[in-house]
From TrEMBL:
GO molecular function: 3'-5'-RNA exonuclease activity; tRNA binding; tRNA nucleotidyltransferase activity
Annotated catalysed reactions: tRNA(n+1) + phosphate = tRNA(n) + a ribonucleoside 5'-diphosphate
Gene source species: Phaeovulum vinaykumarii
Record InterPro entries: ExoRNase_PH_dom1, ExoRNase_PH_dom2, ExoRNase_PH_dom2_sf, PNPase/RNase_PH_dom_sf, Ribosomal_Su5_D2-typ_SF, RNase_PH, RNase_PH_bac-type, RNase_PH_CS
SUPFAM superfamilies according to UniProt: Ribonuclease PH domain 2-like, Ribosomal protein S5 domain 2-like
Name of this protein: Ribonuclease PH
Gene3D superfamilies, A to Z: GHMP Kinase, N-terminal domain
Length: 236
């Protein structure tokens, strides 16, 4: 029995509310169970210096957690004067994931920055950030299209992510914190709307796993991502 009472292949309740920021070119608030992330997308009319003159655009991301996103207060990283290794790893993952769904030639020489701020954490914050970040990115690109700045749509496919793991010896979909902290195997799966893999992060957290178990987790992830893609499209 999962702590939440969910079935092995049952996800938490998903909610994506678009256009929650009047200033950002694209924004949404994504809720996955008790995890809540505010995602905003900002269009910058110049690419990063290393892409100047190449005709290519860029999508990057920044990630952070509010001090009371968790059950105890975390010190603001700005107050510490540096980002943690975890924060840097997660925002690089988000950027890689979102770039996989973009035609950088069609985007042109500009940059879109996706900010993901965790308001409340209960497991799966990086997956929620990728899923919500794509919605914010889609809304920002829509404005470029409407203004006639991009001749063709730079978005080539949806991008979403879900966690899966082995909890109490069973493969489960969409881990919350209670499961994530006790899981024998933990994995994050990033996929396109067509089911193509972008990135897989899997690690043994006290128990090893075999190829059969990995395939079971992948099957769960495909089911979960399909549900997330549906939620993205409904929100838009």
């Amino acid at each position: 029995m999962r702590p939440s009472g969910r079935k092995l292949d049952e996800m938490r309740k998903i909610s994506i509310e678009p256009n929650v920021s009047k200033h950002a070119e694209g924004s949404c608030l994504i809720r996955m169970g008790d995890t809540r992330v505010l995602c905003t997308a900002t269009i910058e009319d110049r690419p990063p210096p290393f892409l100047k003159g190449t005709g290519l655009g860029w999508v990057t991301a920044e990630y952070g957690m509010l001090p009371r996103a968790t059950n105890t207060r975390n010190r603001r990283e700005a107050a510490a004067g540096k980002q943690s290794g975890r924060t840097q790893e997660i925002q690089r993952l988000i950027g890689r994931a979102l770039r996989a769904g973009i035609d950088r030639v069609a985007l042109g020489e500009r940059q879109i920055v996706v900010d993901c701020d965790v308001l409340q954490a209960d497991g799966g914050t990086r997956c929620a950030s990728i899923t919500g970040g794509w919605v914010a990115l889609r809304l920002a690109v829509n404005k470029l299209m409407k203004a006639g700045i991009c001749a063709s749509d730079p978005i080539v496919d949806n991008v979403a992510a879900i966690s899966c793991g082995i909890y109490a010896g069973q493969p489960v979909l969409d881990l919350d914190y209670a499961e994530d902290s006790e899981a024998g195997v933990d994995g994050n799966f990033v996929m396109t709307g067509r089911g193509r893999l972008i990135e897989v992060q899997m690690s043994a957290e006290g128990a090893t796993f075999d190829r059969t178990q990995m395939s079971e987790l992948l099957d769960l992830a495909q089911k979960g991502v399909a549900s997330l893609v549906t939620a993205q499209n409904v929100a838009l």
